[in-house]
Amino acid sequence: MPSALPDGEPVPADGALPASALAGAAGRPLGFYLHVPYCATRCGYCDFNTYTATELRGSGGVLASRDNYADTLIDEVRLARKVLGDDPREVRTVFVGGGTPTLLAADDLVRMLGAVREEFGLAPDAEVTTEANPESVDPAYLATLRAGGFNRISFGMQSARQHVLKVLDRTHTPGRPEACVAEARAAGFEHVNLDLIYGTPGESDDDWRASLDAALGAGPDHVSAYALIVEEGTQLARRIRRGEVPMTDDDVHADRYLIAEEMLSAAGFDWYEVSNWATSRAGRCLHNELYWRGADWWGAGPGAHSHVGGVRWWNVKHPGAYAGALAEGRSPGAGREVLSDEDRRVERVLLELRLVEGVPLPLLRPEGLKAARRALGDGLLAEGPYGEGRAVLTLRGRLLADAVVRDLVD
Length: 410
Fold this sequence. Notes:
Blueprint: H1 19-22, E1 30-36, H2 53-56, H3 69-84, E2 91-98, H4 106-119, E3 122-132, H5 139-147, E4 152-158, H6 162-167, H7 176-187, E5 191-198, H8 205-218, E6 222-227, H9 235-241, H10 250-266, E7 270-273, E8 276-278, H11 286-292, E9 296-300, E10 305-308, E11 311-315, H12 319-327, E12 333-338, H13 341-352, E13 359-360, H14 366-377, H15 383-387, E14 390-391, H16 395-399, H17 401-409
Parallel strand pairs: 1-2, 1-9, 2-3, 3-4, 4-5, 5-6
Antiparallel strand pairs: 6-8, 7-8, 10-11, 11-12, 13-14
Helix pairs in contact: 3-4, 4-5, 5-7, 7-8, 8-10, 14-17
């Protein structure tokens, strides 16, 4: 959950949504994102809305304590029930992210999920995911999560090389994420993801291949591979500015992406979003697909973002301020915006073009259609889908996805 919050109009104290946001809601999927803002240490590349114990000391009092965090978040789930009213939808996905959700007791995560189930109900085939730090789980913890209704788990692996993990300020031991996959399978998890990062200063092609080999050898059914982005204000950005480590390189990123595509494809993984691969349709992350397709989701927790029926809002960032608002019976919302039809069209192009199904050509304006024809001629869009009325990225197009999206939006 990125740390920066945009500007926007005030959120009503009761969190009420415009009637237009709830119109037709029964026909739209609904997901929940539950944000846990705590980390044991801060990774040097991370700019998400997270806090260590030291950062919270003296700034939030008991309200910011992770010991009672589950109860606070449950209060927001109950607020969501009031705001959404008699919405008949069952929740299709729940995703617990952070931060490090597994710094909380496993029973706390199960209680948070239980609140969603009690207030809304879960679809029979609901996808329920938590992110996990490899060093903060063990077989008993995983067994508690699985018994409590979680069926998908995502481990932060990043790299199999110690020197790469050190640059990223990751504290887990190489080999531990792979062991976690086996433990999760033994606990009964149906779907397991490993998150990887490529392009870290000091990482070689061989290092990246070794990380992919290790990940594939562990037997997940989903792999996410992201290029390292150096965010302003992070420790890594400061180290690069001081000349302690080199800046990341776009050409290196492209080479590493091609290596990932080659190795993952050979192992039976198919891309379904530019940075995500799965071994089957069932292995895809349905929750993220809700985001990418502009569905409805409620984000609970400090700094969490939500979207329902064209209304987007975001919560206050600090855990103390967040808990204080809920304790007073107020919405923790910091601001919101009502999206216009054009806003929603543009967002569809921005997000859906990154998917393997692509974006419908009729969604593009005349200039965007001209850009799509140019992209087709340049080998950035696939010919077959184009002839069927969809803009779908080729492998080369995926390497230049951001530029292609900008052209098609314009």
